[in-house]
Amino acid sequence: MPAEPKIAELAPNVDELTSYDKEHAVAYMRLLDADADKADWREIARIVLGLDPTAEPDRARRTFESHLTRAKWLAGHGYRDLLRSGWPKQ
Length: 90
Known about the structure:
Radius of gyration: 13 Å
Number of helices: 4
Structural class: mainly alpha
């Protein structure tokens, strides 16, 4: 299995599906699942995003919030484009 793509500090903030979104679709789904389970954001940042919220709490929180917001956008709007273009191959 290929290595997981590198997580940017901020997820895209545009009203269209990006190549970053396609590369990180699995991470977005994991974020949504963890959020639905009411997992602590620090645990999600560590496990899903590969960040250390103890060492870099501000960066970890900002990255978590940015990616969760993008995941919610994708689930509500961007999924149509993702389905049209095909689910990314891992």
